[in-house]
Design goal:
Length: about 725
Amino acid sequence: MATHKIAVLAGDGIGQEVTPQAQKVLQIVGKATGVSFEFEPALVGGSAIDATGDPLPPASLALCEQSDAILFGAVGGPKWDNAPQERRPERGLLALRKRLDLFANLRPARCFPMLVDASPLKRSIVEGTDLLVVRELTGGLYFGEPRGREEMAGGGARAVNTMTYTSAEIERVARAAFDVARKRRRRLASVDKANVLIVSQLWREVVNRVATDYPDVQLEHVLVDNCAMALVQHPTHFDTIVTENTFGDILSDEAAILAGSMGMLPSASLGGRVGLYEPVHGTAPTLRGRASRTRSRRSCRPRCCSAIRSAWAPMPTASTPRRCPCSSADSARATSTPQAPSWWARPRWVISSRPRWNAPTEPDDPRRLGRRRRAGCRPRPNEQQEGTNMRIAVVGATGAVGQTTLKILEERKFPVSDLRAFASERSVGKSVVFKGERIAVEKIGPASFKGIEVAFFSAGSGQSREYAPQAVKAGAVVVDKSSAFRMDPAVPLVVPEINAHALAGHRGIVACPNCTTIVTVMPLKPLHDAGRLRRVVATSYQAVSGAGVNGVAALMQETLAWARGETITPSFFQHQIAFNLIPHIDKFDASGYTGEELKLVGEVRKILELPHLAIAPTTVRVPVFTTHSIAVNAETEIKLTRERAREVLSTFPGLTLWDEPGENRYPMPVAVEGRDECFVGRVREDLSLANGLNFWVVGDQLRKGAALNGIQIAELLIR
Ligand SMILES: NC(=O)c1ccc[n+]([C@@H]2O[C@H](COP(=O)([O-])OP(=O)(O)OC[C@H]3O[C@@H](n4cnc5c(N)ncnc54)[C@H](OP(=O)(O)O)[C@@H]3O)[C@@H](O)[C@H]2O)c1
């Protein structure tokens, strides 16, 4: 059994109470994971001053240097408030950071659904917050020279602190932050005060240089004053934040309020050989002996620790155990608690590293708008030249698909000059966030689409039928995600990887297929190209968000009611959805099939241009927040072996093969949520049929099944 040596520096105040509890937790975690810990205590802070006169005695520093990790409590207290600088408890911690070269401080702030009301901010603002502040820890104002105070001859005094950074210091923390962002949602906000401070101008220059090594991470620069405001106005905008020491000190404490309290948060100081792990709270002298912080710490810290652990994992300079010593048991506990899906209030910034789709690049690709003009189609009054920004409308902007559309427009840097957000009358007065700005939600009126060039509709088929023709009349191209026009022969029904050619000759409206259709048809296309499809049997396992925000709320409420021991009262679906399966999506017709099942049949046939393809569908609603899964049996005219099927599936754009059963690797909703591709696994030859194949396909139905597919269509149209 591996043994890790942990230096325990409990410090002062409640540091001495919470640290023994953390040791107990570590021991339990160690037992569960086959790791043992050897704890050795040492003095630091005020208690060290009292015993030795030094806030960081040499023996404590030596122990830390020889250990694998440091478990730190807290330092300080009123007793030492008036002591000279070098004999202040905090100097012990600063010296430790400097001596161990702990240059990067990671502080996650995550708002857990069950603690959302612990924050003094409104639920609508903090819900879904999940950010991580990477603070430079060993430079800047807190360490810069010259520093000091002098009494002035003519009376009064003068004090100096110096903010100083070298480019090397900035670069190493920037790299740490980019690595962390890569492991998260690939979005990094670098915070500075470059409009005033020369140090910040160097900071920005170096961060920009480092960014060229991380093309997959979206970087933005935010002024510190603006960031302070944005953190409490729309915290869900942020993913990873990197900033210098003083700004980071202030912003990370501000971020703590988003999670409910500083007592909820952990902190890791990393960079050198040994990592230092501590709670964010201070010594809380007034709480000492009351164990109240111990309680909140026990209940919250494990999940926060897992956030640090996963964020830190990719640091390239890591050597010995710089990981948080918490176990996977923690994350298992965290994921077993019902949580809102990520898209609900929190942006996802996952950008696929795979080629996205076979986008047209040649100047006379028939899918381009220009060609459409040449082909004699009615020109749109607002038809764009390549590269120009577009005026966009998102109809249904407050809904599950609308919210995802806003995120993906931003992620893919869709050229937007102006964005208008529409929803029902109920949402007038609310706002949505796009590129960090709040956009007021409007009700659709007679002149709503004037000047709009592309309108994404996801407000239900009734609204599409009523308003899409108005938008087209006003000169917009409508990308419609409802079922209103899908089966209209005059309207192309498009999955860009499969039938982008169908866009040629559109008359202002392009339809996006049903979400289950898109996920199902993605693997069917390459199989058809290779072996000619004869028959398909598809059974879906559809997430509650496929029914919109109300579906998500229903699963949340029912699960929470169950956890509280209350009676579950179905409020949205026909039956209880928590811990249940409902083989009923949309209305039944006389044949016994549901509308959802018949959509799958008609739409797959239209997209593949196989009007007689035999399809047997069953659609089932399952208690999963986001991401649809479909079990498919496909019969082909030409025999496809398992190997051949795997080959054609793995090379099709927008599809990824996860099919390593020996390693328990196959797609599942929790792994696929937030991803752009559809994932295929469990590929097998049918035991009962000569030319049959079985497989399992999973896709995030809010992304590829709706919003992303619509944006891909628009990208084709504006090229
Ligand atoms: N969810 C999916 O996975 C998925 C996938 C593919 C396609 N779709 C299709 O996309 C559409 C939206 O689905 P969703 O899941 O996003 O539903 P949702 O979460 O319930 O959102 C519906 C949106 O439509 C708006 N809306 C409702 N009535 C309106 C009206 N009279 N005028 C203007 N806006 C109105 C709502 O505004 P308020 O907030 O003001 O009510 C909200 O923004 C549906 O047609 C659905 O079939 C959904």
